[in-house]
Prior knowledge:
The structure holds 2 protein chains of 2 kinds. By secondary structure, chain A is mainly beta. Chain A has 10 helices and 57 strands. Among the domains of chain A are: about 70 residues, Carboxypeptidase-like, regulatory domain (Immunoglobulin-like); about 130 residues, Beta Complex (Ferric Hydroxamate Uptake Protein, Chain A, domain 1), CATH 2.170.130. In chain A, about 5% of the residues lie in helices and about 50% in strands. About 0% of the residues of chain A have low confidence. Chain B is mainly α. In chain B, strand 6 and strand 7 form a beta hairpin. In chain B, helix 14 packs parallel to helix 15. At the A-B interface, strand 23, strand 28, strand 29, strand 33 and strand 34 of A face helix 1, strand 1, helix 2, helix 4 and helix 5 of B. Strand 33 of chain A pairs antiparallel with strand 1 of chain B, so a sheet runs across the interface.
Amino acid sequence: MHYLKKFLFAFICMTLSSSIFAQSSNYKGTVTASDLDEPLFGVSVLIKNTGNGTLTDLDGIFELEANSGDTLVLSYIGYKTQEIALSTQTQLEIVLGPDNEVLDEVVVIGYGTIKKSDLTGSVAKVTSKEITKVPSSNAIQALQGKVAGLQILSTSGDPGANPVVRLRGITTLNDNNPIAVIDGVITDVSAISLLNSSDIESVEVLKDASATAIYGSRGAAGVIIVTTKTGQSGKNKISFSIEQSIESISNEIEVMNGREFATYINQIEPGTYNNLDVLPDVNWLDHIINNNAPITNANMSISGGSENSTFYFGLGYFGQQGILDKSALDRLTAKLNSQYNLSRNINVGLNLSMLVSDKENSPGVINTALRAWPINEPFLEDGVTFADVTGGNALAAIEYSNSNSNSLRSLGNLYANFTFLNNFTFKSSLQFDFNAGKTKSFVPQYFVGPLQQNEVNDLSYSNSNSTDLIFENTLSYNNEVGRHRFAGVVGYSTQDRRNEFIAGNTEGLIREDPLFWYLDAGQNEFENVSNNAGRSTIISYLGRVNYSFDSRYLFTASLRRDGSSNFGKNNLYGYFPSVALGWNVSNEGFFNSDLINKLKIRGSVGGIGNEKIPGSAQYALIRGGTDAVFGEDESIYPGATFDGGGNPDLKWENTYQANVGFELGIMQDKLTVEMDYYYKNTTDILVPLEPAGYLGIGAFRSIFFNAANVTNKGLEWNARYRDNIGDFSYSVGVLGTTIKNEVTNIGQGFGADSLLIGGDLGNGQRVSRSSVGNPIGYFYGYEVEGVFQNQAEVENSPSLFGQKPGDLKYKDINGDGVLDGNDRTIIGNSIPDFVYGFNAQVGYKTITLSADFQGQAGNYIYNGKQAIRFTTLNYEARYNDYWDGEGSTNENFRPSLGGANFQPSSYFVEDGSYLRLRSLTLNYAIPNGILNKMRFSGANVYVRGTNIFTLTKYSGFSPEIGASNAINGAIDTGVYPITRVFSVGLNANF
Amino acid sequence: MKKLIVIATVLVFAASCSDDFLFQPPRAALTVGSFPANADDAVLAINGAYNILRTWQINTGGFPLFDLMADDAVKGSNPGDGTAVAVYDKFTHTALEGGIEAWYKTEYEAIRRTNLVINEVPNIDMEENLKTRIIAEARFLRAFFYADLVRGFGAVPMVTVIDAPIDLGRTSVETILNEVIYPDLENAIANLPVRSDYGPEDLGRATKGAAQGLLARVKLFYGDFAAVEQLTKEVINSNEYQLMDDYAEVFPAANENNAESVFEIAAKPESFAEGGNQFANTQGVRGTPNRGWGFCRPSYTLIDEMQENNDPRLDPSVIFLNEVLDGITITGDGATPDTTRENGQIVEIECYNQKVWYPGTDTRTSFGHNRRIIRYADIILMHAEALNENGKSAEALTFLNQIRERARGDQETLPDYTTTNKDELRTLILEERKYEFAIEGLRFWDLVRTDRAEAILGPLGFIKGKNELFPIPQSEVDISQGRITQNPGY
């Protein structure tokens, strides 16, 4: 991917050298900011009711040809828009005041925008400045700790890994990901990763039913609307930024060293290692982790426009080497937003995002390194040949792994707007999301040991592509008659999602050189190819009205009807209504307060759906490929039979949500407070259940059923105080949410009453459950009371078969004097009670220091990597404090290879609460005087630390453990470690 | 402008026309109701049922648990590996074992595949002889799976339709025998060809002899000696089978589907998808050469006894270290002790199950091992046992001695027995079965059905009244909220 970097830098150089020209005029003015006492660059200056206008230059100066009697409209983000009636005076001095009226902010909602003061729903907005704060390939990670009610877990440090995103608890037992709407295109939340953070204008998170019901079948887990930057008519603007970071492992897991390991094994098998002093001591983690791995993030954009067109073009490069060899990500993104006015009332445009990426797939050696024997050297005496290591040689695993994934994705929206009768706009758009990916893996022939070898080289290759097309037509109406403000939209859309993959593998490539990593280089005898496809479709009708009376009384109602091919004929359609009311108390005549400048109360109810299940879930499929072997020559005879089960009666899952909240502004919005209470009840949840075995769908296989109800409720708040004293400014924000999750029904009409089992550790143990009256995905097993101290205690207590002194003493929960499966109980909840963030910013003149903290509390993690013992493996350091005779410890058990002490129990459940300093940034805005000489219009440099420290009791790499499937709870089965990152960066505008 | 409005309007309504757009059937797969639809489908469906015989999970979740639980084998592998399997050696397994759950559920998956054939193929318009045979094959397989289930778990839910009701409880063993297993096997016996009537391309399909042999095995387990005598006699008189001259010729890969094979599961030395069976891989030599994981190690008592008897069957049954097989020297696993002692006594030596040895160069070739499910030697010993129980001990003796004679070959050992005392013969037949069928999954059930399990396996941990049955998987009890009850003692 080096050519990508070269291309990018060449491109930046070319654009920087291009010149910028200005126009001459009659009127000339200087615009300054009242709060900064500085000229403002880039202020939009338009002549009212014409398309003519310009922007202020670096010194805040504009020149414009205009007539006396015209009105100039000056606008700038964060400042109050000002109108100036022109007289014959051609020299103007204009001072813009900061816009403290946050209420006038425009918020993007589904199929439209609305003034924040008119908003009846719960919507959180995050601006571009916040989004570029975290050095990540995925902009959504920047939302961590920024939006009340939003939980984001960066579960892996692997470059390019997508985080787990949850809004307002766990709504369903299937796919809990919110949807993303990128420039109007409905897609999945992972698509946000194809955007370059610096191309994003704002992110709106829609939380309650009033906001999300317009997305009908897709909105139940929340909607994240991403709006990208567009060009402004007037002067061209060029900006670029470059950020260079280094990352290192933030927290290591302590395992036994060679001596400790041998000592422990000697306790089990006395005399195994007689001379501890001669044993090697290998720290496997140190061998595979490369600290100070670089991350490079470079972006540039050009935007601008003329009277009849605007454009924004952005290009970004993101490169992350990763702290493990062969895990690097290289990514190039391109953004093009353009719009053309074909006539006075018709415009057409295109929003296009593209991504090209190349990812090395790390061979998953973290667990190998944690389990490999520390008394085994990685190399033979020659220092280069890999040695056979019990538990696996992680260095050899990396050496012989060659796997890359490439993807090419483009997402966009081609649209036309037709405005007529002043108040109506008809919009037709064709939205697309094309994704093509390929993965190629080659393993050479090698021998490290009997259990780590590959006798014949092999190659696998897969290619998948998906095409998602949405054809959408909306008609919207906006009008203001006296004190009545109306807005309405109706629409119709069809969506067609198709995907297809082809995969092949072969063995015995004629040469091992990369030039031969193609299926044709293998032996025909070994060649296998598979190919399949899926298609699903949705038809939607939608409508919404907003009505505001005198900016005091607000009303919103919406309805969407969706039909989905994921359901059978009788259950195709679902209806998703919502209604909401709002009252701007502070706009009432009777409201007269010097202290409170803003008070709004709002409430909403509505129903939202979910159809995120595989399209084939309704069918019991019969597939070929289940072949038999017969005949003297043992030939394959083709067979076909059931492949799992299906449910023809599947129907829509519904989430009913009620929300009440208020917004408060105090002392001209120095202090703003927003608070919401939500209650969500999800019914007919589409849940994959492992039904009774006798149904015959096979071991460990599931069928979808509409068979559960879940409620989530909680309180969200977001408060911010900001002020400045002379050159010194500061702000403090606190946000958080409580989550109370409860399963109220599982298995109605299905036979599997009240229980869902998940959390397979991979060794046959399944440690998670969901059942009525409890949160989703809690841990289930024996509760440890202590350690048996002597034989008498074993004999006098209920115990598992064969337990001895030094073994874990499990509690006889039902008190029947016998310890068995009935004594298992709830041993931890994986959903936090409380998710929070707080941030602080202090500034002096052009220097600002900001800190973002983020955390959660009340959740537990099952330390699965420590519980799996398939052979004699190294142990985590905790086991060094083993039981060593009566009275030695009541916490840890005697040295054991496996058995009763490794049953699912509270021994492996750890507190997952944490508080993390997510980012700390010191920013210096270079003063204008210096900049002007360099023809810059604005520039800042910064240093930043990310994941600087984490306060937690959890013993793993990171407490941010989440599961894509909530039923499994939060089990740590070994992850790519989270890293601590230090960055320096530069942003500049021309 | 008007044009644009017209175009947009047309587009809107053109796209909105139908629910057809919302009907998206699965790609590259059929659904129930559309399969099996014709004669070709019927063949595919029955082959799909045979397919499951090669899966890992149909075999007690991947490991030969019956052998581990009996006295002829121990867990094996190295001491640290497969601790989840070790529980069966000591009878400490609980209802939570993943292997038991996998096995139980896969039996029902297999039954559903046979139910698809049994319920749907009769409706197909096709050549009657083939149709009858396919249904009979499916019924043989269904009985095979149910016999495994009721022997292992006792009363279990009885399913004979494609989509089982969701509220089933346990059906008694007697009912399942009388309503499914016996009628299925009687149908199979009446309608399946004898082995020689199949063409060479169909070798491996269920035969009349296999159905008789399986029914005899089931009847023997439940003590119906009259039926066993009759069924085994019919197999013997069919002249379809004969003992191999040399015991060592029974198991080698070159002699798959030999004259002694009444029913075996054919497999190719390939991955499962390409026709392989991992059964031998779990038991294959661990270390050098790397042919598998080394589980299910012949027990030291078995080796000791057979050495004492100078039993020539020992060498073809057990791979000892430094033995040379098919030109390969067996060195074994470095992490496994060559000899394990307890209190100075040898309790285990590193050795492997030779009955699953498969020549070749890598672990994959071991997937080609054909599991011998019913051997003609078993027909003969079952016949001998039934005759003895039915008061025909003198006749029984001649059949028992057929096995002794073949076992001894040209060596001066294992002399013919002469006693015709019924009780003595009963003991001798059981003992003969131990050595003849060592590590073939029969010993544990022989001990259970003859009520000797406690006496012989008690020291290993067997508890009478409990370990005759496996526990119903805990998930099955949990999901059915106790409607499916647990077996005693678990």
